[in-house]
């Protein structure tokens, strides 16, 4: 583990890939090794610009990341791209899609692209994403972009590990705003209306105006930042500089008034609590064993109300001290 940590810190890509595999594994011995590895690398983390890019399936995330990513590395930064896709049924296609959609970026030595396998629950996805991001920072990447498909709560998980959250919407899908959950809009520091090219340029402009209006009605996430809407096209390159400028400005505003520290502290504590509560629940279930099932049966049969069954079980398994 110690020599793997050294290799990761030295920027060795193959070591980084192995470290990520370790962190993503569920095997108990791998988990233990991953824990040691992260502990050793932790002092080298925290320095990247962490950006989340989320949007509906097919919104244009990968294509945008490819075009934006090439600009970022052209600008002299090193870039890691992580793809998170919790909907396992789509994973195979998505990984293939990402490989081909980011072909140019994948050839650049300053870039590292890692499609994350999306086994498991949301908590697992959140933990792995956070830890893989830390590994990329320890390996020296200046920018980490996390792509996530907005299919529910995965974007919340990703918003909890990044500094700047970009919501990507497709200019063609004018009705998207109607069905969009308020909670997702509230996460957005930046909305990028993409595919603003050709026939879609007009609809994209109208969609951008709608989003500006909608964002205006929401309470701001940070006192120092009013969410912005940019129109982009991964095909013509329009708006990409503006988008990156917005990310950099957002990030430096947060850094300069101390909100970045506050945000990251809250994120760490939030992940700690989420994981703690999930794991306590798991352990209760497995330690409860047969008793757990017995109690569930009494609830199922309508003999006890759920809250009373919980009181009873908790008193026995986790007594108040
Ligand atoms: N006209 C136009 N088409 C685009 C643009 N960006 C992406 N597309 C097209 O939109 C489709 C979906 O693009 P992707 O980048 O794979 O979208 P995604 O959001 O990553 O999709 P998933 O990862 O599957 O959720 C592809 O056919 C792209 O060629 C754009 O800026 N303009
Ligand atoms: Mg994609």
First-residue to last-residue Cα separation: 39 Å
Mean pLDDT metric:
88
Beta-strand content bin: 5-15%
Helix content: 55-70%
> Count the helices. How many?
14
* Unreliable stretches covering 5 or more consecutive residues: 88-93
- Radius of gyration, in angstroms, nearest whole number: 22 Å
Shape, principal axes of CA atoms: globular
Q: What can be said about the biggest beta sheet? A: 7 strands, parallel
Could you describe the 3D structure shown?
The chain has helices at residues 2-9, 13-24, 28-41, 61-74, 88-101, 103-107, 122-138, 154-159, 176-179, 182-187, 201-216, 240-256, 259-300, 306-317; strands at 49-55, 79-84, 111-115, 143-149, 164-170, 190-194, 228-231. It is an alpha/beta fold and 321 residues long. It has a seven-stranded parallel β-sheet with strand order 3-2-4-1-5-6-7, sandwiched between helices. α1 packs across α2 (13-24), α2 packs antiparallel against α7 and α13 packs across α14 (306-317). The longest helix is centred in the last third of the chain and has 42 residues, at 259-300. It is globular. Magnesium ion (MG) binds next to α4 and α5.
């Amino acid at each position: 583990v110690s020599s793997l940590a050294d290799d990761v810190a030295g920027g060795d890509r193959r070591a980084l890939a192995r470290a990520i595999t370790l962190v993503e594994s569920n095997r108990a011995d791998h988990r233990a090794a991953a824990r040691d590895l992260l502990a050793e690398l932790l002092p080298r983390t925290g320095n990247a610009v962490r950006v989340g890019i989320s949007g509906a399936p097919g919104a244009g995330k990968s294509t945008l990341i490819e075009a934006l990513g090439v600009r970022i590395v052209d600008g002299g930064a090193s870039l890691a791209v992580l793809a998170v896709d919790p909907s396992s049924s789509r994973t195979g296609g998505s990984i293939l899609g990402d490989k081909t959609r980011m072909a140019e970026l994948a050839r650049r030595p300053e870039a590292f692209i890692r499609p994350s396998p999306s086994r498991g629950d949301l908590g697992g996805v959140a933990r792995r994403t956070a830890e893989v991001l830390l590994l990329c920072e320890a390996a020296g990447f200046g920018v980490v972009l996390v792509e996530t498909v907005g299919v529910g709560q995965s974007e919340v998980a990703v918003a909890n590990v990044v500094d700047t959250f970009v919501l990507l919407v497709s200019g063609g899908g004018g009705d998207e705003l109607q069905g969009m959950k308020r909670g997702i809009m509230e996460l957005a520091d930046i909305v990028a209306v993409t595919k603003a090219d050709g026939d879609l340029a007009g609809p994209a402009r109208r969609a951008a105006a709608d989003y500006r209006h909608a964002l205006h009605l929401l309470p701001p996430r940070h006192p120092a930042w009013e969410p912005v809407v940019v129109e982009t096209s991964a095909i013509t390159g329009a708006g990409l500089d503006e988008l990156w400028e917005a990310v950099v400005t957002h990030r430096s505003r947060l850094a300069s008034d101390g909100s970045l520290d506050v945000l990251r502290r809250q994120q760490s504590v939030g992940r700690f609590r989420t994981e703690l509560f999930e794991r306590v629940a798991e352990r209760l279930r497995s330690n409860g064993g047969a008793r757990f099932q017995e109690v569930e049966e009494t609830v199922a049969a309508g003999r006890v109300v759920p809250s009373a069954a919980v009181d009873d079980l908790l008193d026995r398994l986790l007594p108040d001290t």
